[in-house]
Amino acid sequence: MSSVLDFARNHKIITSILVVLLLITLLILSRPIGPWRSYRADLVKSPATTKEKPGVLRVGVAKRDITPNFLLYDKFVDKNGNSRYEPDKGDYFEDTNGNGKVDSPWIAGFSNNRPAQGAHDPLWARAIAFENNGVKVVLVTLDSIGIFHEAIIDMRKRLDATLGVDHLMVSCLHNHEAPDTMGIWSVGLEKPHYRFDTAYLEMVKKSVVEAAEEAVKNLAPAEGIVAEAPAGPDGFMDDSRLPHVYDNVIRCARFVKPGTDDTIATMLVWGNHAETLGSDNPLVTSDFCHYWREGVEKGVKEPNGTPGLGGMCLYFQGMVGGLMTQLHTTVPDRNGGQEYREGSYEKAQALGENLAILTVKTLRDAKAVKMESNQVAVVAKSIFVPTKPLFSFAAFIGLVHPGWYWGKVKSEVDAFRIGDIEILTVPGELYPEIAEGGVEAPAGQDFALPPMEVPPLRGQMSGKVTMIMGLANDEIGYIIPKSQWDDKPPYAYGRTDKPQYGEQNSFGPEAAPTVHAAALGVIETLHKSLSTP
Predict the structure, then answer these.
(1) What local confidence, expressed as pLDDT, does residue 508 receive?
(2) What is the pTM of this model?
């Protein structure tokens, strides 16, 4: 009898062990599988596909505040005031909610050890919806470091289906003074080791969906005015890596109520990292973008200011690879009486107000033209980007960019036509030479090959104004021309000690050729689908 009982007892133990091992295996496998694994973007919608002629363009906008509610977090006590969490130097958190763990919004960008200590200005999710000829799309710009593709898909799935949205595009400003939404800057060597704020990401997702839905509900007849003007590089930005190629033209679109000067929205694209404050700032802020949008909407005070345009200003990040930054730039204030070199809110304000004044002047100038076309079209295509081993492993275990496709990650490129505006979206930080021209094959390159990312993307686009929006629907890091990839000695451009900065924050040398080829594809498909070229 005892042997029977022993067998039964051992059988239960073995069964329990097998069940636990099965659960662990399923948990491990769920990481590389990722959410929304079967999702594919494969969309072409235009007047040619809907068989509806363009009528009156309709535009709607809405926004949601995505600033962290600091009452929900622990108070951080920074004993030496260096904006870093260093418990060995006396820093500590007051466990205000009594849950026994550290609760903080960790600021993304620069280092992974910056607890946010408050807010300087609000962070926003700003949405603009367009509708005509049976096509309805929404574009959202986020005051955020970046959002991985699977989270974007999740937002799309949450949209109210009865609103009939054909496509939602979400782009991030790559703001280095916002909470971590990617899980990269929430990892620390000290305890606790991993502290990613999933609740904040959930709030951001919900806010994007709400803003997008409200923008659709606010759709109303509109007329468009487009213009562009160079902004920099001098006094605005630096290219910290050779070759020096800039995305320094502000592409502007203003939408007004028909027959009036009443602004509904101003949409802007320009490439520059939002990082004026540098790595020591302890407050969340949208950086120079805050002052730029405020200046366009409400005006910049005299002397040497400008009245605002009203409505809502939406700034979409352009191409920031290379990298485009104001960290090493001397920025003059609008009065010419002072210049700012070091990171500060005064420097961010000067940069933002200079951009606002230039934007308003450009859109009020006689060279600004009224849109003649009102058609709306969209092409969206899933792509699979080969990744270097480190990022491939990180994707496999679900640490970054959840979802692993045999050494590749799933991403996306889009193309839109909004009247006389053509828009291309890229899923990361594109090096401007890929769009503007100037890709090089320097001596010392890691791959002995000529430039691959040709022809330049902007030259393949049409429309009175062409906009290339970065960090759109994903963040795969720097998109570096393969012929400029330089991770191993001998280094390019005569460097002897180390290569230029960039490769360590890129998914790999195949990212640029993959994105470039896909971008050419969606542009060509868009042009073929349009009712007029």
Answers:
(1) 97
(2) 0.94
